[in-house]
Amino acid sequence: MIDLRSDTVTRPTTGMLEAMFKAEVGDDVYGEDPTTNRLEEKVAKLLGKEDSIFVPSGTMANLLSLRANTQPGDEVILDRNSHVFLNEGGGGAAISGVQFFLLEGDRGMLDPLKIEQAVRDPGDYHHPMTSLIWIENTHNRGGGCIYPPDLVKEISHMAKKHNLRLHMDGARLLNATVALRIDPQEYTRYVDSTMICLSKGLGAPVGSMVAGDREFIKRVRRFRKMFGGGMRQIGYLAAAGIYALDHHVERLAEDHANARLLAKAIAQLDCFEIDPNNVGTNILYFRVVEEKLNPGSLEEELRKNGVLVHRVGSNFFRAVTHLDVSRQDTLKVISTLKQVISQLSL
Ligand SMILES: Cc1ncc(COP(=O)(O)O)c(C=O)c1O
């Protein structure tokens, strides 16, 4: 199977498994796991923050970031297609106690003026307190869209003006920085907190990192324990994360090139709608023209022919390239698509 449903489906490479096997471990809840400590230092340094913390998932990283940046009842301003709003089970409301003020972004990118208009009057006690602005980079539903660093800078100025904190859901932050060939700190210097996922394009089996200043990470550590995310001999998993950061960052460019190749091929097929110029990283969305092709049959026939894609809506599909999809696999997907369409076209 060539699995394009998500970049979360990767399996550890032999090198990564060897690193995991050799990891030195201890009890991380006591702060005694040397490999996890090493990973946390490494990520803090990479992101230019005082500290970072290993957590089980991107969803928990976001949940903790919501909780530690706010007080229950606060309001968070974010794009209406944010992953934390659409796909994290409502944990922001249920567990972290915040409410969301949703804005219509441009492929997920927020307009600082619209944010400013959404900030509540802190002097009016009828209003919830706005305390956090939330941005997602790259933006998943925006099609792997990359935040321009200057826009993040502008949003950060606006946040400071209103005494708000700024968090970046950077599940795929390194996809953005590799695509732009910039240092991650070109983004992270503008945000109070961020998270990155080790278990997406980077290819680790588990884990995400939250980064921020020392006091913030202390708070996250307390809430991680409260939420049941304190783990013991996780050095085995941290070793996979260290390996991923050492070996799998620069290669994200290959995933981006494969996604562009696939998008261009899809754009040439008249039963699909896609703008290949909007594919900046490893995620692409496309629509099936239903008069020309049945979306359900497409999904099924692709599966039968060894290709998995994610059907997000009735005629709306997502394909994501990653470590386990080579250039040859991408070419195979293109030829399979053409073959399946020739059989199914109405
Ligand atoms: C932008 C973004 N944030 C957070 C997450 C959550 O990560 P996880 O699946 O590890 O919980 C995802 C998952 O795909 C994501 O795309």
TrEMBL record:
<dbReference type="InterPro" id="IPR023603">
    <property type="entry name" value="Low_specificity_L-TA-like"/>
</dbReference>
<dbReference type="GO" id="GO:0006567">
    <property type="term" value="P:L-threonine catabolic process"/>
</dbReference>
<dbReference type="InterPro" id="IPR001597">
    <property type="entry name" value="ArAA_b-elim_lyase/Thr_aldolase"/>
</dbReference>
<comment type="similarity">
    <text>Belongs to the threonine aldolase family.</text>
</comment>
<keyword id="KW-0456">Lyase</keyword>
<dbReference type="GO" id="GO:0006545">
    <property type="term" value="P:glycine biosynthetic process"/>
</dbReference>
<dbReference type="GO" id="GO:0008732">
    <property type="term" value="F:L-allo-threonine aldolase activity"/>
</dbReference>
<dbReference type="InterPro" id="IPR015422">
    <property type="entry name" value="PyrdxlP-dep_Trfase_small"/>
</dbReference>
<dbReference type="InterPro" id="IPR015421">
    <property type="entry name" value="PyrdxlP-dep_Trfase_major"/>
</dbReference>
<dbReference type="GO" id="GO:0005829">
    <property type="term" value="C:cytosol"/>
</dbReference>
<feature type="modified residue" description="N6-(pyridoxal phosphate)lysine">
    <location>
        <position position="200"/>
    </location>
</feature>
<dbReference type="InterPro" id="IPR015424">
    <property type="entry name" value="PyrdxlP-dep_Trfase"/>
</dbReference>
<dbReference type="Pfam" id="PF01212">
    <property type="entry name" value="Beta_elim_lyase"/>
</dbReference>
<feature type="domain" description="Aromatic amino acid beta-eliminating lyase/threonine aldolase">
    <location>
        <begin position="3"/>
        <end position="286"/>
    </location>
</feature>
<keyword id="KW-0663">Pyridoxal phosphate</keyword>
<protein>
    <submittedName>
        <fullName>Low-specificity L-threonine aldolase</fullName>
        <ecNumber>4.1.2.48</ecNumber>
    </submittedName>
</protein>
